[in-house]
Amino acid sequence: MERFRMILQYLQSNSESVTNGVYGLLALASVKLYSCFDFSCPCVPRYNEAYGLGVLLVPPAALLLCGLLLTRQPAAALHEWRRPRGRRAKDPAVIRYMCSSVLQRAMIAPVVWIIITLLDGKCFICAFSGSVDPEKFAGFANITPAQAQQLLAKVPCKDDELVRNNMSRKAVSRYLRCWSQALGWSILLILIIAAFLARWLRPCFSPAALLQTRYWSNYIDIEQKIFEETCCEHSRHFAHQCILHFFESMRKEIQLHSFNLHREEKEAEGEESLLRGITDQNQVNKLLQTWYYEKPPLDVSQVTQR
Amino acid sequence: MDKFRMIFQFLQSNQESFMNGICGIMALASAQMYSAFDFSCPCLPRYNLAYGLGVLLVPPLILFLLGFVMNNNVSVLAEEWSRPRGRRGKDPAMLRYMFCSMAQRALVAPAVWVSVTLLDGKCVLCAFCTALPVEALGNGSRPGLSDRELRRILARIPCRELYEGQELIAGDVAVRYLRCISQALGWCFVLLVTLLAFLVRSLRPCFAQAAFLRSKYWSHYSDMERRLFD
Q1: Secondary structure (3-state) at A260
Q2: Which residue in the set A1, A79, A238 is minimally distant from B209, CB to CB?
Q3: Are A4 and A32 found together in one domain?
Q4: Residue A212: inside a domain, yes or no?
Q5: Does residue B113 contact residue B67 with C-beta atoms inside 8 Å?
Q6: From the list B2, B216, B228, which residue is nearest A239 (CB)?
Q7: What's a BP term from Gene Ontology annotated to this protein (chain B) (predicted)?
Q8: Residue A275 domain-assigned (yes or no)
Q9: Of the residues A265, A284, B80, B214, which has the maximum number of CB atoms within 10 A of its CB?
Q10: Is residue A137, in this structure, part of any structural domain at all?
Q11: Pairwise CA distance, residues B210 & B10, whole Å
């Protein structure tokens, strides 16, 4: 029980680790999605580029939007940006920090997709097989340009009858895959170096301002969360009070209509007081009917008189 | 008793994460259902279109309705909508908010089914194999065929072992072409849905955030009141 309470408190207090966990899961989902996706190049001259580049760029865009939807921070940053000034000034540095930290984390899953796609190579081969110079490869050299285009477009499809026995098909494929993997590794290296430099060099420039912006962005996030929780608690108490007032007003009405004066003296003793004056079937039915047909007003400032 | 109260408080305070969890489970169930479903194209000219479009559109409708059925707040909404006015006014903005949030959650599983179906490609292959551009993709032979005969041959493309039109258009070429179109549609659909969801979520703070907070509070209040009364 103690463990459960501790985990609950940890999750509720440390929204940053929850957010990081969500983005990590999204990156893993991106890898799984790529391995489940059945890449199937059309091997038709104009369609190849569209398909290859589409698979390289459209899923990352969708993953980025997914990342921005799944957590609360992007909405909190946008809310802070768009709210009226009111009695609290807005700090542009805090808003910038919130937006940039949100975008950095949301970019992880799309970048993972792009890098896996490039390292695998199928997309690149499909998109750019038509752009290769046919003169460099013996099997495509001494034919008309139109025929060369047709044959090059079929290179990604290993089992196609036109290129099945073409000795240069593998050469083109390996050439393009080499470029694709080089691009993939370069992008990965550049990103890691950029992240490393950003992380290490940032505290060198105005560390105090950085601490302040980090504190206030965390504050805004937690304040919004606690406000929502307090509203939930408040609505619960409000509903409770409203229902108690309703029962009280029904009890008074029943007392007004009842001519049995002895009951008045005997009630409010022990368990009978829990029944709040509603003690028989007809009274319960009347109470339930009134509850539906005449909902009580949303006002618990005084005991409601009927 | 203390344990029960704590769990109760957690679920009540985290009603949203509970509903999001149900939503996520239904989405996974939808993907699992598709992989368990044994798609079997009839390979007959008029039946292909009906079967393909049926598999693409009927299960999402069922999943959408199921999403509403599994949401506890449907009865709260229905009750709030149909009750007499009594001594408490009715707020149409609150009813709209409740309906929209339920509809958004119910749309996740159907969207997953449609995406998975389009990305897999079998449905579109089955539905549109008779509409292939034979002049552009074909091998140019067997010219004297009537339309009906041509459609009959093309309808068999999804059934590899029955297909006899290799001279007309290679089976592999046709499958690759239709699958490419299907996957392109699938990714565009995924992008469109996420973009729409993102716009709905992010444009709200720009317009009527105060009204939104009000509707959210009172819809939560209705839900609490009903539960406490019960």
Answers
A1: coil
A2: A79
A3: yes
A4: no
A5: no
A6: B228
A7: ATP export
A8: no
A9: B80
A10: yes
A11: 26
A51 and A77 together in one domain? yes
pLDDT in tens, chain A (306 residues): 777 677 666 665 667 778 888 899 999 999 999 999 999 999 888 899 999 999 999 999 999 999 998 888 888 888 888 888 888 888 888 888 889 888 999 999 999 999 999 999 999 999 999 888 888 887 777 788 888 888 888 889 888 777 777 788 888 999 999 999 999 999 999 999 999 998 888 778 778 888 888 898 888 888 888 888 888 888 888 888 888 888 888 888 877 776 554 455 554 556 666 777 777 777 888 888 888 777 777 777 765 444
DSSP designation for B160: G
The answer to whether B35 faces chain A, any CB pair under 8 Å, is: no
Domain that holds residue A124: 1-204
Quick one: B173 exposed, middle or buried, by C-beta within 10 A (0-12, 13-18, 19+)?
buried
Buried b / exposed e over A160-173, threshold 16 CB at 10 Å, is bebbeebebbebbb
| Same domain, yes or no: A251 and A147 | no
CA distance B131 to chain A (A): 17
Q: CA-nearest residue of chain A to B1?
A: A1
* Residue A238 maps to a domain: yes
0.90 surpassed by complex ipTM: no
**Residues A195, A241 within the same domain:** no
Give the C-alpha separation, A270 to B176, whole Å: 80
What residue spans define the domains of chain B? Answer: 22-223
Q: Which amino acid is at B159?
A: C
Residues A3 and A110 both lie in one domain: yes
A234 in the same domain as A131: no
**What domain count does chain A have?**
2
Q: Cβ–Cβ of A59/B187 closer than 8 Å?
A: yes
Which residues numbered 137-166 in B keep a CB inside 8 Å of some CB on A?
A: 137
Within 8 A of B195 by CB-CB distance, chain A residues are 65
| Domain finish residue from A204, A229, A245 | A204
**For residue B193, what is the nearest residue in chain A, using CA coordinates?**
A62
Of B194, B216, B228, the CB nearest to A69: B194
